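Suppose you are handed a protein chain with no further information: no name, no annotation, nothing but its sequence. What can you learn? This example shows the usual starting point.
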Amino acid sequence: MTDVEILVSTTDPDVPLPRYSHPGDAGADLTTRRDVTLAPGQRETVPTGLRIALPAGYAAFVHPRSGLAARHGVTVVNAPGTVDAGYRGEVQVTLLNTDAHNSVELKAGDRIAQLVIQRVERAAFVAVADLPGSHRGEGGFGSTGVQG
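A reasonable first move is to predict its three-dimensional structure. Written in structure tokens, the prediction is:
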């Protein structure tokens, strides 16, 4: 497998580049470039200090960190956030503290999310009068879940 080259610039020389913590990881760590305190139920868009240039045919997806979610109830509001190949602004992460009682303090340099780079396809949407059948039929959202 060959690595996909992603061009990165930072807003400050101290901002770390995304990196994978372990061999085989799908997500590279993103960090906050400033201190942030999230009160219970509060959301805030947090800057990472990173700008990226993705090759055509790729997108980056911002995922929550499982440790922050499990220990503190912090998640990414629009998970996964999508960074399109043409976007050149600073990558920012909208975090939400779902804990009902405790604030969460994040310090500059703390890992706040994961960036997953994926190849994506462009679709040609074709209007038709009827869709072909499937094994699910026309069952709606949640129709294959637990029956009650």
